Predict the 3D structure of the following.
Amino acid sequence: MTDAHAAVERIYREEYGRVVASLVRRFGDIDIAEEAAGEALLVALERWPADGVPPNPGGWLTTTAGNCAIDRIRRESHRHAKHQAALMLEDDTPHEPTGIVEDDRLRLIFTCCHPALAPEARVALTLRLLGGLTVPEIAQAFLVPETTMAQRITRAKKKIAAAKIPYRVPAAEDLTARLGGVLAVVYLVFNEGYLASSGQHSIREDLTGEAIRLGRILRDLMPEQPEVAGLLALMLLTEARRPSRVDDRGELVPLRDQDRGGWDRALVAEGHDLVRECLVRGRPGPYQLLAAINAVHTDAPDASATDWEQIATLYDQLYAVAPSPVVALNRAVAVAELDGPEVALAEVDRLDLTTYHAWHATRADLLRRLGRSDEARAAYDAAIETSGNTAERAYLARRRGSLAP
Amino acid sequence: MPQYMLSVHHGAGDDALPTDQAVIEKMFADVGAFNERAQAAGIWVFAGGLEPIETATTVDNRGAEAIVTDGPFAESKEWLGGFWIFELPDLDAALTWAADGSKACGGRVEVRPFQSE
């Protein structure tokens, strides 16, 4: 591929969500929108390298794709009466009096993340239609065969059309609940990338960047929603630490041992700004609290300077809005720093998390600190067995090996 | 305007029909109120409750002659107890009505769109 072609494809990918979203509104049909966007890419690949990139490439692509769609519908209208009807479709969505930002991409993401679709289909559709990833890319990222992923996306699109899943931003009274579903999809994409083991899965790691891009789009579209800012901040502060998270041997480096000089300072600063903005707003939610906890960690120049009191308080607040044993487990880690490993272990042992690798790993570390080597060894074994991440397993195996006899 | 079938399925365990008379009476009252609201909203197409599954008869006329059998076409742990057919603008509206219908009849409600062509 030539540089000119690569440049066209980069712009195309950047504008894809906007183009498709606008065409879905106009033609009322996701397949028509995708086909037309694909045809517009071919035209761009032919013209841009010769004529130069137009001043408003997104607008150019939308107009060109719209013309392609109309041509196609006219060509095929004798065969597909339904498509002809689509030509006459008008946008009859009433104006939102609540002041919610009108953007086609926002409608599209609420359609893609509709609760009537299977969770894995929501993720795939969002990456395909908003992120502009190809079906093979998504299949590779989620480690499923391409045909499986193609079927998953096709089935979801059929359901959207047949069951008439609406193409609109939910009304204000449903927005919080439905937004939670959208944010969960974006965070799931992020974690798929973040938890992928290093090296051989670069497409999976690209998912963190994709999730952050979606997070930024949501932030632009819904600047008034504090949980949107909270999720973006959480992702930025987590991504910032990535360079120090795995060492040269492919072994996981826990937060307290990470080289803080290797953290991405620009991402940390951006994340901290968002957390401060959330604090001013004073409407905390789970993502904002997780972001705030990460902000406390990234604020400490070294691990010993961590404000564990603050972290324990934030986990208390998080437990109040999202009570789960995983939150209690993370709180216990802070308790170990404040009140010692014995108190923390008592809290950890009360939790019913025996299938969760982090529970075993936390127990192992607390038992190690208490000098109970035999029990620690058994806990490391259980942690290694339940962890699916090679970098983490390598770290746990080394810790197990360094236990006192 | 699309039509949706909101169907109520009964079965053993959680989905068993109530036997307590007071519970049954309240269910009838709640479903009656729900039906009136749907009719007033202008979305009503049709609705009905079915007699128990023991009353089912199956007819198979795919072969040379019609074969009549006592019982449902397939032994199943769940069966259709009743349904509503409503005319609604989109799935979100159908899901909202289904939530109220589920509350009224005390059962799980399956929402399916009718074919449009």
The first strand of chain B starts at residue 3 and ends at 11.
